[in-house]
Amino acid sequence: MITVTNLSYSYQNTRVLKNINACFPEQQLTSLIGPNGAGKSTLLMSIGRLLGGDKKCITLNHRPISEIPTKELALKIATLRQTTNIDLRITVRELVAFGRFPHNRGKLTTLDNEAIDHALAFLSISQLENTFIDELSGGQRQLCFLAMTIAQQTPYLLLDEPLNNLDMKHASHIMNALRRLCDEQKRTIILVVHDINFAANYSDHLVALKKGSVHSSGTVEQVVTQKNLQDLYEFNIEIMPSSQGPICNYFHSTGVA
Ligand SMILES: Nc1ncnc2c1ncn2[C@@H]1O[C@H](COP(=O)(O)OP(=O)(O)OP(=O)(O)O)[C@@H](O)[C@H]1O
Questions:
Q1: Whose CA is nearest to atom 31 of ligand 1?
Q2: How far is CA 209 from CA 12, 31, 229, 231, in A?
Q3: Residue 136 lies inside a defined structural domain of this protein
Q4: Ligand 1 touching residue 42 (CB < 6 A)
Q5: Which atom of ligand 1 is nearest to the CA of 44?
Q6: Per-residue pLDDT, 223
Q7: Could you tell me the strand order of the sheet in which 58-60 lies?
Q8: Euclidean distance between CA atoms 30 and 182, whole angstroms
Q9: How many angstroms is it from 209 CA to the middle of ligand 1?
């Protein structure tokens, strides 16, 4: 279980996270939701120890992440950042192989190659393995970076907007894959997602941030209510039940609830 207790964070002199308290249950998919600029990426990157600051208030199974040696942390937590622009002429397979670095320190073994094959097949992108990443579409590249993160084979995955650039079919494909990682491989996933319908239909748990604070958290039933979402986004949202899960309709909304 990842637990955050009284976490605050500032960029220069601007406080963007204010006394955050949240927990992220084991082997579940938690979506971080909330308006632009609410602090979702900052919280996610703090959990991944990719930002400075005192991280004693973030624990992994009761152990402060600040006390976990870097090599050990890289075998526990894999993080996919929002910006995945890298200026290297490498193939998809070479990119995904980077995910194995914490295991092999740069020398690929049979086990590493199997993990790479598995990650590519898991996202149905094996056919792209010899393509150069600078020749891919934005969506294809997004899938390849996700494969790199999956190939790291860590029990915890932190994903910042993994649905960026993806069409509906590919976005559903990713969310189904993430569910399988939780349900079949018992991984714990925290992702930042803007599409409330994906969050509502694929998550076990939601943490909603607003203006640097936790606005609400809990199960989909607890968080995805008309009143709560309208207060979170300051926007009219109609929630319609369906056999699969709630559908949030915000089209033609005129603004503040
Ligand atoms: N490197 C930085 N330097 C200064 N301020 C930053 C930096 N990164 C983010 N911020 C500010 O911190 C606040 C929170 O940003 P953050 O990216 O965590 O929010 P977010 O909820 O993920 O937003 P979005 O949904 O738009 O991606 C914003 O006001 C943003 O302008």
A1: 37
A2: 21, 11, 11, 11
A3: yes
A4: yes
A5: 18
A6: 97
A7: 14-24, 2-11, 58-60, 63-64
A8: 10
A9: 12
Residue 254 resides in a domain: no
**Containing domain of residue 163, as a range?**
2-249
CA 212 / ligand 1 centre spacing (Å)? 10
| Residue in 4, 7, 10, 16 to alter for ligand 1 test, most ligand atoms within 8 A of Cβ | 16
Six-digit token string for 242 = 């369906």
131 CA to centre of ligand 1 in angstroms = 33
Question: What total of structural domains would you count in the chain?
Answer: 1
Q: What ipTM did this prediction achieve?
A: 0.98
pLDDT for residue 256? 61
Q: Which amino acid is at 224?
A: V
* Residue in this structure with the two tokens 């084979």, named with its chain if needed: 153
One pLDDT digit (tens) per residue for the chain, 257 residues: 999 999 999 999 999 999 999 999 999 999 999 999 999 999 999 999 999 776 789 999 999 999 999 999 999 999 999 876 777 899 999 999 999 988 887 788 999 999 999 999 999 999 999 999 999 988 889 899 999 999 999 999 999 999 988 899 989 999 999 999 999 999 999 999 999 999 999 999 999 999 999 999 999 999 999 999 999 999 889 999 888 889 999 887 766 65
Task: Out of 8, 14, 158, give the residue to mutate to test ligand 1, the one with the largest number of ligand atoms within 8 Å of its CB.
Answer: 14
Residue 82 alpha carbon to ligand 1 centre in Å: 11
Kindly report the CATH number assigned to the domain that includes residue 27. 3.40.50.300
Decide whether any atom of ligand 1 lies within 6 Å of the 51 Cβ: no
**C-alpha span between 12 and 97 (Å, rounded):** 35
